[in-house]
Amino acid sequence: MDWEFLLTFVPDMRYASLMRNAGLLMALSAALFVGCKKEKEQNGPSLTVAAEPGVVTGDLTLEPLIDTTLRFKLIAQKGSGKDDADLKDYSFTYTIGGTNFTVYANRPAPNGRSFTIDETLSVMGLVSGEVRRYTFTVTDKNGKSQSKSFKITFQSSPNNPPSGQIDPLLSREYSNRDDKGTYLIYDHTNGSFNLTGRTGAENNPDQILFLYYYRDRDPKYHSVIAPDVLSNDGYNGSSIEWDRSWRTATLLRLPPSGVNFDNVTYEGIKEAFDRGQEVNDNIGDFNVGKRIKLDGRTLIAFKQTRAGKDIYGLIKIEGLNDANKSATLSVKVRRPN
């Protein structure tokens, strides 16, 4: 055996082993260093409601149709972490019926460490069941932000008003059937609807809510008409003239802005009519409250008294088609109790 070789080889193996162990130790030390490295200490800014009388501190329920003054006061403060940045800007927005509105956005912060947001505004819900959300947001120079929201619900008294049935007939086409229009028949005892022409309307005269008609001569326009007005002398000789008296009458109005057809409540349908406005579309004085042009309109409210019961409803104009002399309408009716 070559003893000289062994004396040379063994130390080399021990040296290699030591080098491998040293490399592993360095790798572990590096990993330990990375693992122990601290994350930046950033808590982000804060928004706190000021503890003062008359300041809105949380969600509220208010009576609709009453002008109410609200005061929002919040303290914006820089985050308490050692790596938190100064405050940069702040914003104020609100939401009504899913639509967002901006009061102001990204106003520069007057002080990087702390400042006060103080806003006073008047609010008035137009219908019972309307919900608004007012939101304040503050942002720091690191891009971290904090928001505070206040939900305002407008609800008629008593706190738990009667909840009734709303009967819908959505996205149906109304046209000049037989050149005499389309009649909407409604049975208030079971909430059923039927779109019919003149013959069907004659069989159910006391159940007609309204008539759709497209005037195909200048001035041309789409309209909804209260059927009880069709016996007026102003309609003599017209294709939609009807020589019979009605025991029921329909009134038509334009509801106030802010009424949301998709989210309207049982009480909100009635309020939309009660707060609505009669219009004269220059189609004869006898048509005031009895005929409304659809062009440029989005909603129409109506009321009919039938068998001692008040029936309220909303008509949403989905689309108008001059070529087909038709309109696509959605209707919701507040079924009487």
Report on this structure.
Helices cover 14% and strands 41% of the residues. The protein is built from 3 helices and 18 strands. It is elongated, with a radius of gyration of 35 Å. The model is unreliable at 1-11 and 32-36 (pLDDT under 50).
> Uncertain spans, ≥5 residues at pLDDT below 50?
1-11, 32-36
Rounded to the nearest angstrom, the distance between the terminal CA atoms is 114 Å
Number of helices: 3
Biggest sheet details? 5 strands, mixed
Tally the beta strands: 18
Helix-residue proportion? 10-25%
Which geometry do the CA atoms define?
elongated
Overall radius of gyration: 35 Å
Chain-wise SSE layout:
Layout: H1 3-35, E1 46-49, E2 60-62, E3 68-77, E4 87-96, E5 99-108, E6 114-123, E7 131-140, E8 145-154, E9 166-175, E10 182-187, E11 192-196, H2 198-203, E12 208-215, E13 221-225, E14 249-253, H3 266-274, E15 291-293, E16 299-306, E17 309-321, E18 326-334
Parallel strand pairs: 2-8
Antiparallel strand pairs: 1-3, 3-6, 4-5, 4-7, 7-8, 9-18, 10-11, 10-12, 12-13, 13-15, 14-16, 16-17, 17-18
